[in-house]
Amino acid sequence: MVRGFRSFHPIILLLYYIFAIAGLMLYQHPIFLGLAAATILIINFMLDGGEQLKKWGWMIAIMSVLTLILTPLFNNRGNYILFYFFDRQVMLESVIQGVMIALTLLCIISLFLTFNIVITPDKFVFLFSKFLPQWALLIMLSMRFVPLLRKRLIEIGDVQQVKGLSVKCGPIRSRAKNGMLFLQILLTWSLEESIQTADSMTARGYGIGKRSKYQPFYMKKRDWVSLGFLLATGSFVAFGWWLGDGVLTLLPILEQVLLQGREWFYFILWFVFLAFPIWTEGKEMIKWRYFRHIS
Amino acid sequence: MEILQAHQLSFTYPETTAKALQNINLQVKQGEFVVLCGPSGSGKSTLLRLCKPEIAPHGTLEGRITFQGMPLEELEPMVKAKELGMVFQDPENQIAMDNVMEELIFGMENIGFTTAQMRKKVAEMVNFFGLNYLLDKKTDELSGGQKQLINLASVLLLEPKILLLDEPTSQLDPIAAKEFIHMLQRLNEEFGITIVIVEHRLEELFTIANRVVMLENGAIIHDKTPREMIRKLGTHEKMRNFLPSSSLLYLDFHPDAEPETIPLNVKETRQWLQTESIEQQEEDQTSESEQQPILELREVDYQYTKNSPPVLYNLSLSIYDGEWLAIVGANGTGKTTLLKIIGGILKAQHGTMRFKGKKVKKWDAQKVSYLPQNPKLFFIQDTIKKEYDHLAEHHGIANAEERIQHLLEKFNMKHLQDRHPYDLSGGELQKAALIGTLLVEPAILLIDEPTKGLDPESKKAFGELVSTLVTEGLTVVMVTHDIEFAAAYATRCSMLFQGEITVTEKTRDFFHENTYYTTVMNRVTRNSSVPSVVTLEEARRTWRVQNRS
User: Fold this and answer.
1) Is B426 in CB contact (< 8 Å) with chain A?
2) Which residue is closest to A187 within chain B, CA to CA?
3) What is the per-residue pLDDT across A7-54, written as a single tens digit (0 to 9) for each?
4) What keywords are assigned to this protein (chain A) (predicted)?
5) Is the pLDDT of residue B131 over 80?
């Protein structure tokens, strides 16, 4: 979708991710985190139909369950004893703590899955060149070399296999020896070929003066609007944390878990901020679903 | 007006005494299309590189080169980069960037264009070249021909006044090469860009060039129009092989023809042949007795991944003892894949392969050898002699030294045995790799695209060499797009299409039946008043001229 979440300027996207991760770290409250988890899972489904989640789902689940179980076992600070497990008290506070850590982990990992979908390599390089311009060119040149060297190594392996030198079968010693030989020839060969790359770069004026950089992305009106939205909601979220509204106090005395009063305001605000991709992506989905035809 | 001028130019490489170039005087006028040709080592690439100062070879230079009246060394770096455009031989190695868009704007970024200027220029260029569909791709997904077009476009975006090209089509398949040369023709005719090109593939260039300059041993020996050049070179021992076969045919008939009458392309040759009356002498067909195939493939399927379309599907092929089978077909039809399956590099998902009736699970190195498309890959040692010794030791070959020396002698490579493989020329390297493949005395030799990057002379030498090996009993399976080469040397030809071998016939019959996918000579002679032939050699052998009218 041309105008979905992915179409925003990379800086805006980066800002969203920085704020979101900061928010997840700050709002240590099971209900706030539960809401965040639900939102981020929905975002995942909206962006790629849950493809990435399916791939990483097991790992996320195992990690979350492990922290959920292990935290109460190792942490026994608190006032309310729930039960005894092998002569150790299991505290209500530490159970809640476990829930919060598990949810934070789940949220951050699934948020990174969406980061992978949204920040494609070209956007990444763009962001990188914004902050470290002299390194960006080096990175782009090396990015070309990774697949190239891989392809060349496979080619060398194929040809040498028919000659009887292989890294795939035979005793380990000879396999390792052949592997080293292949790498050595890969290096010689690639150095030889890269002289030509250098010539072609020089011929096109590389190194004669200050390079300009092509800017594939520019700030559009909607990017500015979104920037305003993110800054506004983001600062409210930070303010809420400063007031202590999104944080559950565990010690010395456990705060009431259910939300009350002003906390509801920050709860809703937190959702409005975090669901930024849902608003932008959802608008497009609805457009495609219902408004495609002139009736 | 002269745009580029070399005046009394001589050049010596460091630590050598012989001059690589001597007393070169060359004027290139605005809007000209000049071809530099000559045998390997004649100094034509050196001359071209000297015209682009940033990449000029090191050495001592006498005389001077001027660009629009200004000596090259006095030009601003910006002018040198912008106005002298250069495209090199290898499409792959010229590319610096990861994706096509970045590659196209690389030069403009170096010069310091603004984003808005770059967008505008790229838009223009992409529309002119019709490259829209490539713009979002990664550079390593492209074919060789596409890569070379991107390289050309990237240079043209700087708006050069003159375009220097160093064998730009030698690594391309014939169809991509034609497309590339056609593009150069458009640039020259529609925009008046001056073009200086060093090239071996002269057949197509002769019809579009204004001038052909021939170098030999570092000196210009001819500087003529294409037709006059053909007339001159028709008797030159080495350069003869570079000429279009249709022109050579004409010269056979009219050894002292006027240059203006020499036909350059198929159309002109057909018109000329209408005036000739020729009868064909029957060749005695050597009828071959029924043979057992040495290698038999049955119902082979191959897919790279489970979800990709099959590259080979239900392919069956028989290879007989002592033949040279050429498998031809367009790019991406799976020719190399097939060769890799035969060589045991890839494993087919379905089907069987039988060697002399026995099912093959894994090859012994003694039975099959593989000469790769890039013969550099064959070598992993410092010198070619060390490589042979290593191979001999690895396979435990008896009388290894004797055999190596014998092969070196036979291929006339003895003087090169202590060289690093990368220091050899294309033709020498190919021969060196060929010796390596023959050391183990294979029953079957697999050759992948052997003519890539070879000049016509080395091509001919290689073809004749392998031909003698075949008559001595070696079985050769070769994949190629070079149909002229296949027609000249292979004994049988197979066409690969949609993952299957659609037809396998004796070379002559194979090309004889084809209308479009066939040699120049066949296109010249089919359905005409003269007996149709497939190669120039065949015409020389079988045609009997009746009367000349």
Assistant:
1) no
2) B380
3) 999 999 999 999 999 999 999 999 999 999 999 999 999 999 888 999
4) Membrane, Transmembrane, Transmembrane helix
5) yes
Task: Report which of residues A169 and B375 the model is more confident about.
Answer: B375
Q: Does B125 touch chain A (CB under 8 A)?
A: no
For A:41-80, CB contacts with B below 8 A are none
Nearest CB among B155, B377, B379 relative to A204 is that of B155
Q: Which residues of A touch B365 (CB under 8 A)?
A: 162-164
The pLDDT of residue A293 is above 80: no
pLDDT digits (tens, 9 = 90+) for B23-41: 999 999 999 999 999 888 8
Long-range CB pairs of B136-142, under 8 A, 24+ apart, other chains included: B136/B99, B136/B100, B136/B101, B137/B99, B137/B100, B138/A147, B138/B98, B138/B99, B138/B100, B139/A144, B139/B95, B139/B97, B139/B98, B139/B99, B139/B100, B139/B103, B140/A144, B140/A147, B140/A148, B140/A151, B142/B100
Question: What does the block give as tokens for B338?
Answer: 């097939």
pLDDT surpasses 60 at A127:
yes
Joined together, the tokens standing for residue A181 give 């030989």
In chain A, residues 228-267 whose CB comes closer than 8 Å to chain B? none
The CATH code of domain B293-519 reads: 3.40.50.300
Is residue A66 within 8 Å of residue A59, measured between CB atoms? Answer: no
CB pair distance less than 8 Å for B112 and A184:
no
- Under an 8 A CB cutoff, do B110 and A199 touch? no
The verdict on a CB contact (< 8 Å) between B94 and A197 is yes
Shortest CA distance to A140 belongs to which of B100, B32, B231? Answer: B100
Element (H, E) at A104: helix A92-118
Hey, where are the domains in chain B?
2-94+160-240, 244-274+520-549, 293-519
CA B28, distance to chain mean position in Å, is 27
Which residues between 202 and 231 in chain A have a beta carbon less than 8 angstroms from any beta carbon of chain B?
202-216
The alpha carbon of residue B434 is apart from the nearest alpha carbon of chain A, in Å, by: 12
User: Options 3.40.50.300, 3.30.1330.10, 2.60.40.420, 1.10.150.20; which CATH number does B2-94+160-240 get?
Assistant: 3.40.50.300
How many Cβ pairs within 8 Å bridge chains A and B? 148
Is-same-fold flag (B2-94+160-240; B293-519)?
A: yes
Contact A208 B82 (CB under 8 A): no
Interface test with B, best of A174, A187, A193, A204 (most B CBs within 10 A): A204
Q: Which of B257-266, B278-287, B508-517 has the lowest mean pLDDT?
A: B278-287
pLDDT (0 to 100) of residue B455: 86
